[in-house]
Amino acid sequence: MTRVPLPPTNAKTFRTVCQFCIVGCGYRVFKWPEGKNGTPEPEGNALGVDFREQQPADGVWISTNMHTVVTDKDGSRHSVAIIPDQDCQVNGGLESVRGGGLAQTLYAPDRETKVRLMKPQLLGAGGHADAAWDEAVDLGARVIKAVIDRWGADAVGMKFFDHGGGGGGFENNWAVGRFFFSGIGTRRASIHNRPAYNSEVHAAGDAGLAPLTNAYVDAQLADTIMIVGANPYETQTNYFLNHMVLNLNGESQTLKEKTFTGEPTASGRMIIVDPRRTMSVVAAEAAAGAENVLHLQIEPGTDIVLLNAIARIVLARRWHDIAFMRQRTEWQTFEAYQRSSLGVDRPLDEYIAEAAAHCGVAETDLHKAAEWIAEPKKGGARRRTLFHYEKGLIWGLKNYENIASIVDLALMTGNVGKPGTGCSRLGGHQEAYVRPPYPGGRPALNVDEAVRRGEAKVFWIGGCNPVLTTLRAEAMENSLIERGASVRNVLEETKGKPVGERVVAVVEALKEGGMFILAQDLYMTASARHAHVVLPAAGWGEMNLTSINGERRLRLYERFVDPPGDARPDWKIMALFAERLRQLYEEDNNPLMANRFRDYRWKTDEDVFIHARYSFKGDGSDPMEGYAGITYDLLRKLGNNGIQTPVRLVNKVPVGTPRLFENGKFGTPSGKARFIPAHRPWPGYAATIERQRQRYRFWINNGRVNHIWQTSYHHQHIPFYRERYPIPCLELNAADAQELGISSGDLLEVENDVGRVRAMAYITDAVKPNHAFMLFGQPRGAAGDLISDHVDPATTIPYYKGAWADIRRIGPAPDELKTVSFLPRNKVE
Amino acid sequence: MADVNRRRFLQGSVAGLAVASGLAPAAGPKNADAAAVDAQPNYPSLDIAPLDSIGPGAEISFDYPDENSPAVLLRMGAPAEGGIGPDGDIVAFSMLCTHKGCPLNYLAERKMLVCPCHWSSFDPAKAGRLIIGQASQSLPQMRLEVRDGMVRAIGIDGLIYGRHTNIL
Fold it and tell me: With an 8 Å Cβ cutoff, are B81 and A706 in contact?
């Protein structure tokens, strides 16, 4: 395409936030009748831009992927343009590769997104067939009731989205949580990407910290930014480009001088802990100069050793923040931490030499990291260090101690609750924390196991795709197939019979080991394919929703298109089921259960938001949550800058919180933060993992890449993205590739004792010999097929990054890879 | 629609680094009406360089379809998508990054085009597809032909950064 239509001056305008990553960049939406385009002179288009002229760099532009044509329910066709918002402080007008294609994710009957789910479907012998909402809800609700009545609430298993952004938001999160926790009361709940309903950062919570402590501007103010197990150029793009880079290249110097009068400031430095030399490392070096970037390319599983070694050096150099610790932390926990985690009973040099060898990094680099983090500045001012971590640490060797070790380092150096500091997740997706409390304890029940072993009689999958993403992914799929088969058969046999009779037959099948499966999603996913009841959900842009980003910035994502067919927002789907269950329990003279499903008569998206809001008033009982006084109207006025949570009412005016813990009060009973001691400085590999390590040559690191959002649920239907990674890539070191006779683009098979998966070879110097990195969770190759069922027993969090396997070439690049570039993804010069 | 005055014929001089420039200011119609927005642009033809002057590794800057649109012709040394010449290895691309419009650098050793602003990179052997980075479309590729021994630009596949249509 060599042209895009311009929005006319009377185009409808909306504000929204990208549906993808945690950063939540602001976007402007224009919608106008197809063909009624604006004109290039500034007064002739809604952008007010003179398109008769070439626009300058950083100007306003509509790329071809920023425009599409949609068809609303009444058959009317409209142009839609979605462009980055220059007034949004988060992205300042920058788009990411994902956000630049938001328009392409919209449903269109004449493009590939036409495969969206349009109607509820029921599974029979001949596959899925359309059904009415009433029929699908009635059948599903009756089976759920029968299962609760016979086996108890825990026999209803679920794996649901728990996030903001697309396919989530406060509205849908609240409705789902309310239905399963306050309504059904099941403990067999699990979050989209893992086997249980649990925090990914329990240790941070136990220490009294929240997952998201800082404001993005802190990345412009820090002396040093330390990033552990994350690749922000690719996966938190505009936080990196619009905040971190401005610090690294000196652009934020004026802001620093204004903020920190009398304190020495200079361009920022960055420490990146990552086994790969990613584009983030390369881009940071380009921005800051290589001398201001320290890349610690560790061996897998050694984060705890590394972080504790750095902390030990800080302690030995007496760079720890004693005043902060005395005032803000429980001092005795610091003493315990020194003994258990920092090896203070051993000579420093010996401890550091051992740690360096273990991690595969130089001792001098450990010392340099400690200096960059904590060496006082000229005149004695404390260095301001901002700590960030994500899946490399979260999905690492030992979730609990991994997180504890970075939180401990941040506390010890006093880097929480002050400008230019913080200790936060970088985040994956956006957040929408509101949910009633999970009815289970800790560690949470492992739902994947319950699905495999038969304790879950119902399994409801919402807005996620465990067949591609969970550990032992193939075993998950086999369970869905095998345990679903008998239910499928009885549904076929009882077709056309009264629903009561059908439910009795289903329950008989469940007694014999069957499982009744529901799925609600945008598309017929690899998981939904096995569901007996498939429910079409509305997505981003098709309903109003609210979410927070990685600095807790709450905004309204406006609805600007109709959902396709009969798709409905998730909150509405939950309300339909709740209402039907209430009726069924009333008919059954069971008011106790009927009452659990009351008050779902929301009329609008905002009704749900307001309902959720009442539970989170911002009274300080939760460090992150608080939405007092927020309405959609207020959020509309605040636009894409929104307001940072927790929000409290001060003189009846909602006031946000850009940075947490500035008041020095942490989320513990004493109000003081706690150090979390590691039980052992080096926990070692679990037996399952150690067996794999002994048996297979390659470490199969895995995660996301720049172009692709999660399972490609949208991106597989958009050529620009799909054609970049038609098959998941597997990064391989050139020496290893040569030894195995592998060229870039070759088809590979990766195999271990858990399963096998295919990938396309991508030869790079980003990974060390005997390391590999695979794009995770793809329809044509799920790295989850290689992941063992080992979880951290303290948290039920998997070691997704911990798979070892063998790699072999199975053939040359197929024709579909002819257009794929295999040039390096980590070079700028 | 471009008028005939916008057609510029420029000769690249020798192989290697030859910069073609000096286009007169664009003189096209300024007030395209709404209907014209969707019309197929009438691209000018532009002589870039004689084919026999384009040696291995050639990198020739030129402007196309007008002086505000910098472009580069590259001889890749191996067949490239959309390439012309006896080896099918001569290609040309817009040099404005399709992310935010910064001028790209060509890394001759790596055979990739990289943006110094936000580090998007593009593969000139693969029709300007994004290797990594934040652009949301491929780099516009100049359509080339050889006529009477001269390599000429005759059109563009893809929208140039900062424009709603390639011919302003």
Answer: no
Question: What's domain B4-96+138-157's superfamily in CATH?
Answer: Rieske [2Fe-2S] iron-sulphur domain (2.102.10.10)
Q: How far is A706 from chain B (nearest CA, A)?
A: 7
- Residue A724 contacts residue A706 (beta carbons within 8 Å): no
CATH class of this structure's domain A12-115 = alpha beta
pLDDT above 80 (res B15): no
Taking Cα atoms as reference points, which of A190, A758, A211 lies closest to residue A471? Answer: A190
The pLDDT confidence band at residue A556, using thresholds 50, 70 and 90, is very high
Q: In A, residues 328-347, which contact B (CB 8 Å cutoff)?
A: none
Which segments of A70-167 does DSSP mark as H helices, in order? 133-151
Query: B5 pLDDT exceeds 60?
Result: no
Considering the candidates B6, B8, B75, B99, report the single residue annotated as catalytic.
B99
Q: What distance in Å separates the CA atoms of residue A393 and residue A428, rounded to the nearest whole number?
A: 13
Q: Is the pLDDT of residue A421 over 90?
A: yes
Return the CATH superfamily for domain A202-425. Answer: Dimethylsulfoxide Reductase, domain 2 (3.40.228.10)
pTM of the model as a whole: 0.95
CA distance A87 to A104: 23
User: What band does A1 get if pLDDT is binned at 50, 70 and 90?
Assistant: low
Confidence band for B11, pLDDT divided at 50, 70 and 90: very low
CB A804 within 8 A of CB A714: no
H or E segment at A613?
A: helix A605-613
- The pLDDT of residue B27 is above 90: no
CB contact under 8 A, B81 and A819: yes
Q: Do A57 and B81 lie within an 8 Å CB cutoff? A: no
- SS3 sequence, A119-131? CCEEEECCEEEEC
Of the candidates A55, A234, A706, which has its C-beta nearest B162's C-beta? Answer: A55
Has B118 been annotated as catalytic? yes
| Confidence check: pLDDT of B38 > 60 | no
Q: For A37, which of B34, B129, B130 is closest by C-beta distance?
A: B34
Provide the residue ranges of all domains of chain A, joining segments of one domain with +. Answer: 12-115, 121-196+445-537+572-579, 202-425, 687-817
Taking residue B90's Cβ as centre, other Cβ atoms within 10 Å add up to 24
- Among A85-99, B28-42, B86-100, B102-116, the minimum mean pLDDT is found in B28-42
What is chain B's alpha carbon radius of gyration, rounded to the nearest angstrom?
15
- How many angstroms separate the CA atoms of A745 and A823, rounded? 11
User: Complex ipTM above 0.85?
Assistant: yes
Nearest chain A residue to B103 by CA distance is A57
List the CATH code of the domain at A121-196+445-537+572-579. Answer: 3.40.50.740
CATH 2.40.40.20 fits A687-817, yes or no: yes
The predicted structure's pLDDT at residue A508: 98
Does residue B24 register a pLDDT over 70?
no
Tokens linked to A62: 């509509």
**d(Cα A14, Cα A29) in Å, to the nearest integer?**
5
Q: Do A720 and B137 touch (CB under 8 A)?
A: yes
**What are A428-439's pLDDT values in tens digits?**
999 998 899 999
The pairs formed by B119-123 with CB atoms below 8 angstroms and a separation of 24 or more are: B119/A233, B119/A279, B119/A282, B119/A283, B119/A286, B119/A828, B121/A823, B121/A827, B121/A828, B122/B93, B123/A821, B123/A823
Q: Cβ of A829 and B107 within 8 Å? A: yes
* Average pLDDT of the residues in A601-605: 97
Residue A52: pLDDT above 90? yes
Residues 264-283 of A with CB under 8 A from B: 279, 282-283
Residue in chain B closest to A55 (alpha carbons) equals: B162
Contacts with A243 (C-beta within 8 Å, 6 or more apart), sequence order: A216, A217, A219, A220
Give the mean pLDDT of chain A: 96
- Pairwise CB contact (< 8 Å): B119 & A283: yes
